[in-house]
TrEMBL record:
<feature type="binding site">
    <location>
        <begin position="7"/>
        <end position="14"/>
    </location>
    <ligand>
        <name>GTP</name>
    </ligand>
</feature>
<keyword id="KW-0479">Metal-binding</keyword>
<dbReference type="InterPro" id="IPR027417">
    <property type="entry name" value="P-loop_NTPase"/>
</dbReference>
<dbReference type="Pfam" id="PF00025">
    <property type="entry name" value="Arf"/>
</dbReference>
<feature type="binding site">
    <location>
        <position position="58"/>
    </location>
    <ligand>
        <name>GTP</name>
    </ligand>
</feature>
<keyword id="KW-0460">Magnesium</keyword>
<dbReference type="GO" id="GO:0046872">
    <property type="term" value="F:metal ion binding"/>
</dbReference>
<keyword id="KW-0547">Nucleotide-binding</keyword>
<protein>
    <recommendedName>
        <fullName>ADP-ribosylation factor-like protein 16</fullName>
    </recommendedName>
</protein>
<feature type="binding site">
    <location>
        <position position="35"/>
    </location>
    <ligand>
        <name>Mg(2+)</name>
    </ligand>
</feature>
<keyword id="KW-0342">GTP-binding</keyword>
<dbReference type="InterPro" id="IPR006689">
    <property type="entry name" value="Small_GTPase_ARF/SAR"/>
</dbReference>
<dbReference type="GO" id="GO:0005525">
    <property type="term" value="F:GTP binding"/>
</dbReference>
<dbReference type="GO" id="GO:0003924">
    <property type="term" value="F:GTPase activity"/>
</dbReference>
<feature type="binding site">
    <location>
        <position position="14"/>
    </location>
    <ligand>
        <name>Mg(2+)</name>
    </ligand>
</feature>
Length: 167
């Protein structure tokens, strides 16, 4: 079972994964180093099953594709508090959706940093990502949206549930 976590640099992937892992050493400074290469996290779910998630650093966008083979679930993280970054994130998201290696993958779109965002920005972000159009065009596909924060732990239960689903 391969799960990957993608998203622009600084969108909050590492902090999110640390939260999922319930890492005791999380603090605000522990994730400021951009992930170089890829980073693996193993998460123990409530049903005592373990899943391993591979974060592919945002700086590696040109070679994301190399990690798509065999991927069953994909977590795409966008920073909901940074609308400047969203359009570019949306373009990349569309590219990912079009990749034949991911045709059967379940997709989780994470709007991160909701602690410093607010509802209107969340709606704006989804509009800018053209999510409703994407859902229409990719109606066969399972796309779920979760609002999260690596600071407050918001959304972690939903994320864990999604990870445990149909393992
Ligand atoms: N306020 C806030 N800051 C966050 C959140 N998640 C990450 N950050 C900060 O954003 C920066 C980049 O986070 P990181 O997890 O390394 O991003 P990555 O490049 O996607 O792995 C760090 O300074 C984090 O402390 C969040 O949910 N809320
Ligand atoms: Mg990272």
């Amino acid at each position: 079972m391969t799960i990957i976590c993608l998203g622009p640099k600084g969108s909050g992937k590492t902090l999110l994964l640390k939260n999922l892992k319930q890492d005791e050493n999380i603090d605000a400074t522990s994730s400021t180093v951009p992930t170089v290469g890829t980073y693996f996290t193993t998460v123990l779910l409530d049903n005592m099953k373990e899943v391993t998630i591979r974060e592919v650093g945002g700086a590696m966008t040109p070679i994301w594709k190399n990690y798509f083979k065999g991927v069953r679930k994909l977590i795409y993280v966008v920073d909901a508090s940074n609308l400047c970054q969203i359009s570019a994130a949306g373009v990349l998201f569309y590219e990912i959706m079009a990749d034949p290696d991911l045709a059967a993958a379940k997709i989780l779109l994470v709007l991160s940093k909701m602690d410093v965002s607010y509802r209107q920005m969340r709606n704006e972000a989804l509009l800018m990502m053209q999510l409703s159009r994407l859902k229409r065009e990719e109606s066969h596909r399972d796309i779920k949206v979760v609002e999260a924060s690596g600071m407050t732990g918001k959304g972690m239960d939903e994320l864990r549930k999604w990870l445990a689903d149909a393992l």
